[in-house]
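User: Quick one: structure for sequence A, then sequence B.

Assistant: Sequence A:
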Amino acid sequence: ATSPVFTRAFSFPSRQDIDGRLIVGAAIFGVGWGISGYCPGPGIVALVIGSWNPVLFLLSMVVGMVVFNRYDANQRNAKAVAISSEKKSIKSLQ
C-alpha cells in the first residue's frame, strides 16, 4: 500500500454536493486553461522559457484569485450581518 510522504494519511473532500460556486469556478478554470494553454503548475514552470504568455497567464490568475477573495469576503460579511440582524430581530420579539 502506498502512503503520503508529508502527512500521515490521504485526505479526501467530505462534501459530495455540486453547487453553483463549483460549476462557475470549474468553468472559469477551464476557460482560462483553454484560452492560455496553461494550467497553474505548468504555467509557473513555463516562466523560464522567456515568453510573455506564461507571465500574462500568471498575472491574470493572481488577479482572478484576488477578485474572488474580495468577493467571497464580502459575501461572508453580508451573510454574517444578515444573521446578526436576524438574531437581534428575534430577541426584540421575545
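Sequence B:
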Amino acid sequence: MDASQEAWLLLRGFAALLVVIVIAFITLRFGLPWLMRYRAASRPRTLQVDEFLPLDRNHRLYVVRWDRTHLLIATSPDRVQVLHTRADPGSASFEHTLEEVGRASNQGADKA
C-alpha cells in the first residue's frame, strides 16, 4: 500500500469520526432536552410540593399535594411529621391552613 492510499484511509477515518461527533453533539444538545420535556409532559405528576416555609435552620413546613389531598408536613433533622391532612381542598392559602392548625393546637393545649 503506498502513501497516498494510507493518507486516503486516514482521511476517511477522521471524516467518519467527525460525523459521529457531530451527530452525537446534535443529539445531546437538541434531542435529549426535547425528550426530557416530552416525557415529563406525558406523565401527570401526582406528588408536588406546593409551598414551604423555613421555620429556622433545621425545621421547615411543607404543603404537599398528592393526587387530590393536601398534607401539611413538618420536617426536622431527626423526623418528619404530618400535621394536617385535607382531602379535596378548596382555595385555602398556606397561611390560612397554618392558622387553622395553630388554633387547633391551642385549643388542645387549653383543654389539657
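The chain has a mean pLDDT of 83. The radius of gyration is 29 Å.

User: Thanks, that's what I needed.
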